[in-house]
Amino acid sequence: MSESMGKNTAGELERDTIEELIRTAVDQLAYSYAPYSNFKVGAALLAGDGRIFTGCNIENAAYTPSNCAERTAFFKAVSEGVRDFRAICIVGGKGGNPTGYVAPCGVCRQVMMEFCDPETFRIILAYGRENCRIFRLKDLMPEGFGPGDLNP
Ligand code: THU
Question: Which residue is catalytic, options 12, 70, 114, 130?
């Protein structure tokens, strides 16, 4: 783990926490249901109270109802009454072998905008043992639309 792990990007997240999130996201690849794309994705979502909610992508023969790993994790958490989040880790790749960064799709970024502070919420992308990049939501969703825009 080297790239972008300096204090400017890791922020207040502890290195141990980041490593646990990466391990947890990787574990979720085993549960990914991706018979159509064979692109498996796992996510680990860190809540404000320290709990980690997991997610995997879940595809569908009708394609459109497919759900990304990130949204699976968010919807699991919100459906259990949790709405305060610190970070999400995303891993994935063809056949469940992560060989590059998997950035969240636009729909998942919008779901993050609903529940997360763009200034502080961290998006951790990782693959292998050494490759990790950490972004703030505001950097992946510049000029994003969120709940506050409905009540300016
Ligand atoms: N996918 C995710 O689960 N998260 C991402 O960040 C990118 C894409 C899924 C959706 C679909 O099941 C498969 O990856 C290929 O797009």
Answer: 70
pLDDT tens track for 18-75: 999 999 999 999 999 999 999 999 999 999 999 999 999 999 999 999 999 999 999 9
What is the value of pTM for the model shown? 0.93
Residue nearest to atom 6 of ligand 1 (CA): 104
String of DSSP letters for the chain: --TT-SHHHHTT--HHHHHHHHHHHHHHGGG-B-TTT-EEEEEEEEETTS-EEEEE-B--TTSTT-B-HHHHHHHHHHTTT---EEEEEEEEEETT---S--PPPHHHHHHHHHHS-TTT-EEEEEETTTEEEEEEHHHHSTT---GGGG--
User: Catalytic residue at 70?
Assistant: yes
Nearest to 28 by CA among 91, 111, 74, 80: 91
